[in-house]
Amino acid sequence: MKLTLQIWRQPSAEADGNFEIYTVGGVSEDMSFLEMIDQLNRQIVLDGGEPVAFDHDCREGICGMCSMVINGEVHGPIKGTTTCQLHMRSFKDGAKIVIEPFRAKAFPVVKDLAVDRSAFDAIITAGGFITSRTGSAPDGNAILVPKEDADQAMDAAACIGCGGCVAACPNAAAMLFTAAKVTHLGSLPQGQPERRARALSMVQEMDSQGFGNCTNERECEAACPKEISVMTIAQMNRDYLRASIAGDEA
Amino acid sequence: MSAFNSQLNSHSPTGPIEDRWTNHRFDLNLINPANRRKFKVIVVGTGLAGGSAAATLAEMGYEVTSFCIQDSPRRAHSIAAQGGINASKNYQNDGDSTYRLFYDTVKGGDFRARESNVYRLAQVSGQIIDQCAAQGVPFAREYGGYLANRSFGGAQVSRTFYARGQTGQQLLIGAYSALMRQVSAGKVELLPRREMVELVTVDGVASGVVVRNLITGEYERHAADAVLLCTGGYGNVFFLSTNAQASNVTAAWRCHKKGAYFANPCFTQIHPTCIPVSGDHQSKLTLMSESLRNDGRVWVPAKAGDTRAPADIPESERDYYLERRYPSFGNLVPRDVASRASKLECDEGRGIGNTGLAVYLDFADAIKRDGEDAIRQRYGNLFQMYQMITGEDPYRTPMRIFPAVHYTMGGLWVDYNLQTTVPGLFALGEANFSDHGANRLGASALMQGLSDGYFVAPATITAHLASGNVKRVSIDHPAFEEAEAHAKARSNKLLSIQGGRTVEGLHRDLGQIMWDMVGMSRSGAGLRDAISQIRALREEFWSEVRVPGENSHLNPSLEKAGRVADFMEFGELMAQDALNREESCGGHFREEHQTEDGEAARNDEDFSYAAAWEHQGVDKEASLNKEDLTFEYVKPSTRSYK
User: How far is CA A171 from each of CA A80, A104, A223, rounded to the nearest angstrom?
Assistant: First the structure.
């Protein structure tokens, strides 16, 4: 396959960026999308240029590091996958592909296609945990968790923190990310004591990090590589409302 | 061969094995809770070992600085572990016990692990489950709300706890949330996108690190009273492995060059069920959980060179070689045995697919027996992942699988306190060598990382902190100056060469040498050849590599060049260790040492020791130190899976 790529290049957070056009040949349909970029980068390096910077690590869809918008779609055209799991057989020979970084005020570009997602860590720091000292835990079976609650928690906990939900949202909101954590922990008996305080402080932190508001577009759910449901947002809104009215005591 | 230097002291306690950890903890010095804040601890890496250690130490009151190379601590490669985590809870009432988990681990490791450590691991395994459940890790549950278990990797008891196929992810998120709680409490300074490039020692004692800020390219100095290295394994020396792209040996190797011995580097685990290589473009290999072998049958065409489609090969012309060779364990033989068997089939020309480097894993019988729905229930995610990568439907046509490098049992040598030969430097998790011997059992890696991080290191770190041998200096100390200058000079050198070869191309060449000659099957002649080829390649690297860009900004090529440069040195040590070990055991198979029917022949008489290598300089042979391994409880026997 031979492809034309239009890629966002930006030397640093402060510098202006622009699109550059590249052609890359010898692409096999068995290649992953990132291996296709690897191929382009080899070509750029041997031509004396500077390769395209992009975030990636596990290349099996679980670390949440890869983060591209491909032809306007977060993580590309296949539902329920990350960019690293996308393969070139999803594209036609001769295709033109536009590749951009995740764009959001709270995710400034670091370089080219790599962005800074530390705002997500700040949201978790604000309350995305259960306070349990190492060594103080009771026997695992002393806390019974009904299977459906455990399954609901697991569905939400599948979030990989990639930020695709933010990039897909017209308001660059982090509702799905925050709600996934609020729902994960709030679905479990262990998470009840801090449930309201957690919802309050995580939502406040989300706002202060510069993420937008939710206007029920559901683009986040459609883009999520782990297919986290917007029902988690409803859950978070209930917890938040309760906490706002009744205070943060559980 | 290599000169034998000295006998190492593991500081392993004596007495009845079940009392050792309790007695040892009592004997360790304590530090008063109010005094702990005066001690600063550096934790490098935020995987299961690093994340859990940093969180727990901070909770206890120590000042902690935590570093990771990714943009967030939540992305460490522990996240990719699929199968589960072992614990000897005996919730299933099927005869499990601390002793049985200990026994299975020592035997599974082919009698090359330290008994005291393994027993401790089995002892704390239950507490790990308690701790993680309390944190909100959504383990699989029965309908009554109790924790669910499964049997894993051929174990005869159901002791594996799991969270769908994402156990590593969920345990890591648990450790990450505990870590972020301490960040919120102001007890952990978290510095992501930093790579440790030097260990700083003062009078031979670990006193801090130099890290490179990967965004700005600046070198930063951090002084501390102890350094915990939790930087994972070195599987990427093979270029292709199931590891993440950034997984590397650099931090451990820089410590090795500062005096930390490296133990058993030749013990690498090749996982039998991975998706085969599809072409030269391949950048990583994807693991398919070994649980698939519970229902899949492994086979190749009986005749070499048979290129018919699998459906066109009749039963009578297929060879279910694992079932034939190992009638008792069949498709569930341990990882090392299964991997070697498929290599043998491919070497003899019976491999399948375009490359001939694959075997079939066939679910047709299981689907016929249990129905497609039951198989979908069990393996739906994995089948989907397989189809996504290969474009083939495993419900209709057998999967193609081949072994790939997965886990490394070797690592920095540590004593019972997890302290390396550099006082004040500790190594945890996959970065150390201690608990898995020559082969790791399935679902034991997560257990060891969390055992070291939550329970062992937070107790044993006082062995150094309360020793009176702490060398806390200012970051203006000449040792820091020197370390930083060294790191800078190295980056500048890499950038200045501007040769004609990419970092990746050179790494690929190294991987090929390692896979061919230091991989699943090794011979004396091959290993000697590997050493000379690695030396030549290393020379080529330092004269021909082209690293684009500059030091002063995000430069992934420069990062990778530094890591590959270290692999170029480390690969030689691996080959040297494999050459020294004139026996076959666990993940290490020497062609000269096999039984008549091709099974591994271990040599307990001469090699019942951990080989801890001491750096003598690049291009010089490392010198060998031994820790004799004695087995008071589990008497060495030959593993037989026939």
Answer: 22, 8, 14
pLDDT of B1 above 50: no
Look at chain B and report how many structural domains it folds into: 2
The model's pLDDT over B605-635, given as tens digits with 9 standing for 90+, comes to 999 999 999 999 999 999 999 999 999 999 9
B483 and B394 share one domain: no
Final residue of a structural domain among B345, B377, B406: B406
Task: Please give the residue range of the domain that contains residue B519.
Answer: 478-599
Closest Cα in chain B to A156: B138
Q: Which residues of A touch B278 (CB under 8 A)?
A: 28, 30
Tokens of B285: 């290999």
Percentage of residues in chain A with pLDDT exceeding 90?
Answer: 98
> If phi over 0 gives left and psi between -120 and 50 gives alpha, with beta otherwise, what is residue A221?
alpha
pLDDT in tens, A181-205: 999 999 999 999 999 999 999 999 9
Q: Report the first-to-last Cα separation within chain A, whole angstroms.
A: 58
- Chain B hits for A35, CB-CB cut-off 8 Å, are 281-283
CATH of the domain at A135: 1.10.1060.10
Q: B548 and A133 in contact by Cβ < 8 A?
A: no
Give yes or no: residues A34 and A128 share one domain. no
Whole-model pTM: value is: 0.97
* Nearest residue of B to residue A88, measured between CA atoms: B389
Who among B132, B284, B458 is closest to A59 (CB)?
Answer: B284
Domain boundary (A89, A111, A133) is at A111
- The domain spanning residue A42 has which CATH number? 3.10.20.30
Q: Are A99 and A53 in contact (CB under 8 A)?
A: no
> For residue range B591-606, what is the model confidence (pLDDT) as tens digits?
999 999 888 999 999 9
A241: Cβ contacts below 8 Å, ≥ 6 apart: none
Statement to judge: residues A67 and A125 lie in one domain: no
Helix (H, G, I), strand (E, B) or coil at A32: strand
For residues A143 and A31, membership in a common domain is answered with no
- Spatial distance between the Cα atoms of B265 and B174, rounded to a whole number of angstroms: 30
DSSP A193-216: TTHHHHHHHHHHHHHHTT-B---S
Structure tokens at B600: 């591994």
Helix (H, G, I), strand (E, B) or coil at B515: helix
Return the H-helix or E-strand segment holding B606.
Answer: helix B604-607
Whether A86 and A127 share a structural domain: no
From A53, A87, A111, the end of a domain falls on: A111
- Domain boundaries, position A38: 3-111
CA dist., res. B156 & res. B604, Å (int): 26
Residues B142 and A149: their CA atoms lie apart, in Å, by 11
Q: Helix A175-186 crosses helix A147-157 at what angle (to 10 degrees)?
A: 150
Tell me: do A122 and A241 sit in the same domain.
Answer: yes
Phi, psi of B262 (to 5 degrees): -110, 125
Same domain, A193 and A173: yes
